[in-house]
Amino acid sequence: MPIRPENKDRYPGDWPAISLAAKEAAGWRCACTGQCGRGTHPGRCPNRHGQAAYGTGTTVVLTTAHLNHQPEDVRPDNLVVMCAGCHLHHDRAHHRVTAALTRAADLAAAGQLALEAVVDLAVPTEPALPPALPAAPATVHDEPLPFFTHSNSTETTEVHP
Length: 161
Hints:
Blueprint: H1 15-25, E1 62-66, E2 79-83, H2 84-90, H3 92-109, H4 115-122, E3 139-140, E4 143-144, E5 148-149, E6 156-157
Antiparallel strand pairs: 1-2, 3-4, 5-6
């Protein structure tokens, strides 16, 4: 995917080499195994760079996708080589949000809309995680370890030798 000029500074200087290495490691084949959410290919996508795409026949162009949509994050487990179709589908929700923000900024600049009102509606929030379960008491040979705080008590059991 082309890098938008306003995002260019978010990519590391060696991004072309990182992306090329990822494509070579993937054997110049789309490495999407369902991350795109299209549901059109069981297992790994069959599209290969420069070949005809399945379903459309257009020429496949491989891209390197950031699973978390953060160009600064180039950890190997965050990067997946994808054909343009898989990459676009993977990014669809992210594109909807950024498009809404761009439209809102344009309207706000024209004096038509308060940007803050749209940002609150357009930017998804992370789901709240349930509280962590209390840890099981730490023991050695079925004996509680010293300085263990019991989850249903505020007292601390202290053992001195």
